[in-house]
Amino acid sequence: MSSKVPCLHFFPSDHIADTLHLSLEAQGCYILILFHTWNNNCRPYKDDDKILPRLLRVTPRKWRKIKEEIAPLFDLSDGTFKQKRLEQTWRKALERSEKAREAANARYDKRVFKDKRLADALPRQY
């Protein structure tokens, strides 16, 4: 896996349809959790009422209210904010990234091999 996080393909119409019922603040916190999780190599954040409010830039009191709104959008069963669709998108992005890397390496190898053949065919200059 590379050190860079792959590109997140985001589908605004799906996002809006799934979150239309949320308040503006809950909407912002939800998307921030998704984005922070993505940038954390899709490792979900712990359900920690001390860390998450700071990460999301809300007060602990406000976080408790927002958490009630957004909790149904996550799987909290193992004590983390897991989101199945985000994890599926992550896996697909890694696959795309790996295929692109393999294709680029193949093009590079082909070009290097071709250049080497050309170099071998040229007369040497002393």
* Tally of separate domains: 1
How would you classify the helix and strand content by structural class? mainly alpha
State the distance separating the first and last CA atoms: 44 Å
Point out poorly predicted stretches.
none
- Tell me, briefly, the overall form: elongated
**Main β-sheet: number of strands, strand sense, barrel status?**
none
Strand runs, count: 0
Number of H/I helices: 5
Helix % is 55-70%
Mean pLDDT: 87
Secondary-structure element series: HHHHH
What is the CA-atom radius of gyration, in angstroms? 23 Å
What portion of residues belong to β-strands? under 5%
Task: List key phrases describing it.
126 residues; single chain; mainly alpha; 5 helices
Describe the structure.
With 126 residues, this protein is mostly helical. The chain has one domain. Helices cover 63% and strands 0% of the residues. The chain has helices at 12-19, 24-39, 51-56, 60-70, 84-121. The longest helix has 38 residues, at 84-121.
